[in-house]
Amino acid sequence: MKTIHDITLPDIAGQPVNLGAFKGRVLLLVNVASRCGFTPQYAGLQQLYTRYQPRGLIVLGFPANNFLGQEPGTDAEIKTFCATKYHVTFPLFAKLSVQGADQHPLYRFLTSKETDPEFAGAITWNFNKFLIGRDGKILARFGSRTAPDDQGLVAAVEKALQAEEPPAGGDRRPKTAEPEKGSP
After folding, report:
1. Per the domain annotation, does 183 fall within a domain?
2. Is residue 14 part of a domain?
3. pTM for this prediction
4. Which residues does the annotation mark as catalytic?
5. Residue-wise pLDDT tens digits, 156-171
6. Residue 136 within a domain
7. What is the mean pLDDT of residues 116-133?
8. What is the DSSP letter of 64?
9. Residue 176 lies in a domain
10. Which pLDDT score is estimated for 179?
11. Which residue from 126, 134, 132 is spatially nearest to 165, judged by alpha carbons?
């Protein structure tokens, strides 16, 4: 595995999703929980997604029950909770483990010194955040106490969004609009 784009895992409805489908987008991966002191961050994550999704940001939520049983529900219960309490529209995935012997390969990739020497280390609690560039490489990591509207996190998202989408079989540079003939 060289980037997260090589990973496939089930979404909250149980359908397989290859993260390669998000190639060319900026991603914010967050391990989430419904019964945590940081659970209100769902609202901020949704606001961040709504604000920056048109520019290419996708927030991805990964429910995990690793910390004091704060995500005990089924995937269906989690989906309902997120939709009704926080009006979440960003993609959610099936519950997984972010640490321990049953750690999901995605989180092994994100936290390993071999694949992520700059931001490696165990997940410390719910709502840890990984910012992933358009090329699938990890750009930054933020802890649970960093709210989605934190100035540093927002600045990192904006910087990542300014990076051009990598070419894939053709010139994908943004085209500049030329004025129509007769325009001032």
Report:
1. no
2. yes
3. 0.88
4. 36
5. 999 999 987 655 544 3
6. yes
7. 95
8. B
9. no
10. 34
11. 134
Amino acid at the residue 170: G
Domain holding 59, by residue range, is 4-148
Q: Considering all CA atoms of the chain, what is the largest pairwise distance in Å, rounded to the nearest integer?
A: 68
Pairwise CA distance, residues 57 & 28, whole Å: 7
Residue with tokens 């769902």: 42
* Number of domains within the chain: 1
Report H helices in the chain. Answer: 41-52, 75-86, 105-111, 151-162
DSSP-derived 3-state class of residue 161: helix
CB 34 within 8 A of CB 71: yes
- The residue among 142, 117, 67, 133 whose CA lies nearest residue 97 is 67
| Helical (H) or strand (E) element with 61 | strand 57-63
Query: Residue 39 belongs to a domain with what CATH number?
Result: 3.40.30.10
CA distances to 17, 72, 85 from 53, rounded to whole Å, are: 19, 29, 21
